[in-house]
Design a protein that fits this description.
The chain is of the alpha+beta class and 125 residues long. The protein has two helices and six strands. It has helices at residues 44-61, 82-90, and strands at residues 5-10, 15-20, 23-29, 69-76, 98-103, 116-123. α1 (44-61) runs parallel beside α2.
Length: 125
């Protein structure tokens, strides 16, 4: 790792985020309660809110904020959740970043009802 790199929340398999120069690459975030590690109760709205709150915390730890997000990728297990997810997701941004949204067959952590995962690229001012 060079001087220009820093890792946030390094785990065994992946890091929550990697900072390279002014860019912050946030790994895919699922709707897991930070205290229990379990998927939050509720539907797509509650899960999207949890993902966005986690993203906000990661970016703040990295010295940035949601205002500095350049691009997100949203993964939904059911594209019919798009409009509900979008209502919650869009409430977190003053200026919406570039975004891709796709339906996927399944998200990690078998046995859990994970409906959404979001990753992001942001910058550090």
């Amino acid at each position: 790792m060079s001087k220009s790199e820093r890792v946030i929340g390094q785990g065994k398999i992946f890091s929550r985020a990697v900072i390279y120069n002014e860019l912050i690459f946030v790994s895919g975030i699922g709707p897991h309660d930070p205290e229990t590690g379990k998927v939050v109760e509720g539907g797509i709205r509650e899960q999207t809110r949890r993902v966005m709150e986690t993203m906000k915390a990661i970016l703040e730890e990295a010295g940035s904020s949601l205002d500095n997000v350049l691009k997100c990728t949203v993964y939904l297990t059911d594209i019919n959740h798009y409009y509900e997810m979008n209502e919650v997701y869009s409430s977190y941004f003053k200026i919406p970043p570039a975004r891709t949204c796709v339906q996927v067959a399944k998200l990690p952590r078998p046995g859990e009802n994970v409906l959404v995962e979001i990753d992001a690229i942001a910058y550090k001012p």
